[in-house]
């Protein structure tokens, strides 16, 4: 029998970037907030001396424990049986306080203005027939002018380091980035010079790794990046990388209005007649069940967990790909990260062991709708960038095409190019299709007997064509940089391979919009089917852009926090 706990103003499910921002903003406004986090607690002390590549990068110390059911089943199409994803590969889901905000790289972009009204912009520019059969691009129900102030708020809190995008089509910033860009390196300089000669518009990648010491508007002071190369899959021991554990969560805790409960797995949202009364959760240390009653429920776990929790709670209409009806699980997208170019230099060596997760340069000439798609068989595009993340010794071992996968020649080429290989990546948009979606698996269950989430996803001709085009552009720049040999990606894209890591940039399943038949939440991230439930995360995206999602997730979280305060005042739907 579950024990019912005293009612609070707000219960937040999942305390990463979304949950941390929501908790910080609401507690500063005086609301009593309980944060329920499935994983373990963390403090900055947990990051000290954590430069252990084997432990964190290869054995996934900071990722969800798949043995406890924090996984999905996967299949390429509806005709196949889905099987459990048993070993981390294509994506890496964080677990514990801070979530994936603890182990991210810090690459920090605003989505493009057209991203928020993509369907309308495509139709205006090319006509509706440009979208292939099965593509389900939708507008987000929000405009650039409406979301820009929340991007500014996020950048000030995180202390983003960057510079204005020089492309003629780029929106001119109303405010400069809080900090100047990160250091120029021989690698980023080479990229910029080559891209400029080709007529493109390179600039430094915006970064949530601080370029200098910084104190944010909440009074949180952080040190500058030391370029130690341990960003992705690691917590930052210097505090230079923006992380919920070192930014928004301490602010919430300082108010005295925030109670954090770790090892607390929410299994259901309790609701009746269009309103939630609270959540049911399990204390994973004792096995006890509790009901936390609240006036407002905020779901901020992660794309797959948010969708799964709504489906398990029978909240919202599940998406049916055969009819195209329903919304929960609709428009699952990923990231097209296949059109890369590896350059091998016979006459140059680089210091590739120094770096940072968002130390890099890029062009946006082929992102969004900035270029002409009239004669192309894909829509949207990609950012093309080079990063100096710091090549840690286990994970990085690149050799030219045609080199055997083992043996004497493999060893020879590995040694020859150990410090002479550069990578240009094309991070492409992922657009939604009718038969790429999320639902509950009919066979496989987790440790407490609930169905796992089932992912049905595969690349489309849209993705293959985009990858081929971007691979050609990336190789063009790499050759202009002087590489003697170039491995060009994107030439022969087959089925989506869940075994190989690309990014953790999953999107959709709890999409936002103005139409309840096409979205789970309205533009304030308030559920259409439950007025006091707000769902926050990259699941709100109707599609993915050519950028990392974190800044857009954060901007939407700040807007949702404002929406929750509006709801507390007036009640009812906010639209």
UniProtKB/TrEMBL annotation:
What are the UniProt keywords, alphabetically?
A: FAD, Flavoprotein, Oxidoreductase
Q: Where is this region: Disordered?
A: 162-185
**InterPro entries, from UniProt?**
FAD/NAD-bd_sf (IPR036188), GMC_OxRdtase_N (IPR000172), GMC_OxRtase_C (IPR007867)
Q: One Pfam family, short name please?
A: GMC_oxred_N
Q: Where does this protein have coiled-coil stretches?
A: none
Provide the GO MF annotations for this entry: flavin adenine dinucleotide binding; gluconate 2-dehydrogenase (acceptor) activity
In this chain the Glucose-methanol-choline oxidoreductase N-terminal domain maps to: 144-331
Q: Glucose-methanol-choline oxidoreductase C-terminal domain: from which residue to which, for each copy?
A: 432-557
Instruction: Supply the EC number(s).
Output: 1.1.99.3
Q: What's this protein's family per the entry?
A: Belongs to the GMC oxidoreductase family.
Please report the name of this protein according to its UniProt entry. Gluconate 2-dehydrogenase alpha chain
* Lineage of origin: Bacteria, Bacillati, Bacillota, Bacilli, Bacillales
């Amino acid at each position: 029998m579950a024990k019912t706990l005293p009612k609070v103003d707000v219960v937040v499910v999942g305390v990463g970037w979304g949950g941390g921002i929501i908790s910080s903003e609401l507690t500063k406004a005086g609301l009593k907030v309980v944060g329920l986090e499935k994983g373990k607690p963390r403090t900055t002390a947990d990051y000290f001396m954590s430069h252990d590549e084997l432990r964190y990068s290869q054995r996934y110390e900071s990722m969800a424990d798949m043995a406890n059911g924090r996984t999905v089943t996967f299949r390429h199409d509806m005709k196949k049986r889905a099987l459990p994803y048993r070993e981390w590969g294509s994506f890496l889901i964080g677990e514990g306080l801070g979530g994936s905000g603890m182990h991210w790289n810090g690459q920090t972009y605003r989505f493009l203005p057209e991203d928020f009204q993509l369907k309308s912009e495509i139709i205006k520019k090319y006509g509706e027939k440009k979208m292939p059969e099965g593509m389900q691009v939708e507008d987000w129900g929000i405009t650039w002018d409406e979301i820009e102030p929340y991007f500014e708020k996020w950048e000030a809190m995180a202390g983003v380091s960057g510079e204005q995008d020089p492309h003629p089509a780029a929106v001119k910033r109303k405010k400069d980035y809080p900090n100047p860009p990160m250091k120029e390196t021989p690698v980023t300089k080479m990229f910029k010079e080559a891209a400029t000669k080709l007529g493109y518009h390179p600039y430094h990648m915006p970064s949530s790794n601080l370029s200098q010491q910084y104190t944010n508007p909440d009074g949180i002071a952080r040190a500058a990046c030391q370029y130690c190369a341990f960003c992705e899959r690691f917590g930052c021991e210097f505090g230079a990388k923006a992380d919920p554990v070192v930014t928004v969560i301490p602010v919430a805790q300082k108010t005295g209005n925030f109670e954090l409960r770790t090892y607390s797995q929410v299994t259901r949202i309790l609701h009746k007649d269009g309103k939630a009364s609270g959540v049911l959760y399990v204390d994973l240390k004792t096995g006890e069940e509790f009901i936390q009653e609240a006036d407002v429920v905020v779901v901020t776990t992660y794309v797959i967990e948010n969708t799964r929790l709504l489906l398990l709670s029978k909240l919202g209409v599940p998406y049916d790909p055969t009819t195209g009806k329903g919304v929960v699980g609709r428009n699952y997208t990923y990231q097209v990260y296949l059109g890369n170019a590896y350059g091998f230099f016979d006459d140059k060596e680089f210091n590739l062991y120094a770096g940072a997760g968002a130390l890099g340069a890029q062009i946006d000439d082929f992102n969004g709708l900035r270029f002409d798609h009239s004669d192309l068989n894909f829509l949207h595009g990609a950012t093309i960038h080079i990063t100096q993340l710091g090549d840690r010794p286990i994970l990085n071992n690149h050799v030219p095409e045609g080199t055997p996968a083992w043996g004497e020649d493999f060893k020879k080429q590995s040694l020859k190019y150990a410090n002479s290989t550069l990578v240009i990546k094309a991070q492409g948009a992922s657009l939604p299709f009718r038969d790429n979606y999320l639902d509950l698996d009919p066979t496989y269950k987790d440790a407490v007997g609930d169905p796992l989430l089932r992912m049905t996803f595969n690349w489309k001709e849209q993705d293959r064509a985009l990858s081929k085009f971007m691979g050609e552009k990336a190789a063009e720049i790499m050759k202009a940089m002087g590489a003697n040999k170039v491995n060009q990606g994107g030439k022969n894209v087959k089925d989506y391979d869940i075994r190989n890591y690309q990014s953790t940039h999953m999107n959709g399943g709890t999409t936002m919009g103005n139409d309840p038949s096409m979205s789970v939440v309205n533009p304030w991230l308030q559920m259409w089917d439950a007025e006091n439930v707000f769902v926050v995360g990259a699941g709100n995206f109707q599609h993915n852009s050519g950028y990392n999602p974190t800044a857009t997730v954060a901007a939407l979280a700040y807007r949702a926090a404002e929406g929750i305060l509006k709801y507390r005042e007036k009640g009812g739907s906010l639209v």
